[in-house]
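Dear colleagues,

I hope this message finds you well. In preparation for our joint manuscript, I am sending the Sulfide:quinone oxidoreductase, mitochondrial (Myripristis murdjan) sequence together with its predicted structure, so that both groups work from identical material. I would be grateful if you could confirm receipt.
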Amino acid sequence: MAALQHLKHCYSTCIGTSRLHTSSHACANKEHFKMLVLGGGSGGIAMSARMKRKIGAENVAVVEPSETHYYQPMWTLVGAGAKSLASSGRPTASVMPSGVKWVKSRVQEINPDTNTVRTDNGIEISYEYLIVALGLQLHYEKIKGLPEGFEHPKIGSNYSVETVEKTWKALQNFKEGNAVFSFPNTPVKCAGAPQKIMYLTDAFLRKTGKRTKANIIYNTSLPVIFGVKKYADSLWEIVQRRDIQVNLRQNLIEVRADKQEAVFENLDNPDETRVFEYDLLHVTPPMGPNSVIKGSSLADEAGWLDVNKETLQHVKYPNVFGIGDCTNVPTSKTAAAVAAQSAILNRTITKVLKNEKPDKKYDGYTSCPLVTSYNTVVLAEFDFNGQPLETFPIDQSKERRIMYHMKADLMPHIYWHGLLKGLWGGPGPYRKIMHLGMK
Ligand SMILES: Cc1cc2nc3c(=O)[nH]c(=O)nc-3n(C[C@H](O)[C@H](O)[C@H](O)COP(=O)(O)OP(=O)(O)OC[C@H]3O[C@@H](n4cnc5c(N)ncnc54)[C@H](O)[C@@H]3O)c2cc1C
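The corresponding structure tokens are as follows:
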């Protein structure tokens, strides 16, 4: 209805009505698309490629301000000097499906009651269907002394394109003392990444003969080393074998970068703080929902996009869908989860377009390749219930070289040529084959 009103309004006010299209049209500062995708990250590009095939490129638009699209999982290896930052990024124009309209601006406001979105350059876009893929937000500023502390050496963070190379610099310049790694007291994307760089640091310092002069310390807000017991058991064995100190329920609250000090609070006893001197500090920032979603009626109480966890359809607005880190789907936020979700969401939208009930259900599949050195990985794969959902018929909780090659060489290829082209919906079908149809 709102879309129709908008169409009428635009028809009467636009000069050059020949620009009107059955499903997408534009006037001075108004546009309309049948399928509007917010965010051109992993989920947004994957879904726009799938929607192009379903309803035609001219009916799909993506709102995304960034000129460069990054494969973020690569940053673990960039921070450890195993890959270059340049190899993790490609121009957004090159990943945008051809013919799909790229609206190069930032969404400022979503109004699901009028089926409209407003961008920061004053354009109002109306839609019939909306896919929200806005990711999550990093909050370095919630730690006292950051982000300005990153101007000092000895500190880095693999979570941002601006700070990931600082990790590698700090690692190379490490001389002796404490190498400290943090995990915040919020939901995060890729919950394994804060400790992957710790194992790589351990491996690098062994390789360069500095390990005996280093204390490696992992201070995590969580009460466990990893959320899934099978993999946690393996990781405890690895940290013990490698003489890595793990302190649970410790939350980074302040960085005094000029003095190379990091202050942690004890979450079980908030009056108790501990100061760690460091020669290397890796910060995983607090994270939270995208502020545009948080400020709209699409959000749940905590600010995440409120979707049905099995169909990915919004719980209140049936023409709105969500994918990836921005949603309240209760699984670990990863690109692997995005892949599995993209196949489900594709099916959900197919059904909704036909006025039928969504029938395919997401099982929470997510994956975390826990890099434990420059040539080994523990490949965690699990579902909503934290139950392992392993692709290969071998014990994946063991460190394996083959899994490292999968992480470093095969997965980027699958990302650029499979997921982003809307052709990769996760390893579900292969898992079935590998397990002879038993899983
Ligand atoms: C260090 C690190 C290691 C990781 N390791 C792994 C791994 O090993 N395996 C794995 O599967 N995953 C890993 N991940 C997680 C993975 O990268 C994310 O889960 C995935 O990219 C989420 O996709 P998304 O589309 O939800 O969000 P994103 O890919 O972050 O995309 C969100 C997009 O929305 C855009 N956006 C934001 N706000 C606005 C706005 N207002 N208007 C318009 N556009 C906007 C952003 O510019 C961005 O392009 C890792 C992440 C990091 C940082």
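For the figure legend, we might mention the following. The longest helix spans residues 335-353. The CA atoms of residues 56 and 100 lie 8 Å apart.

With kind regards,
E.M.
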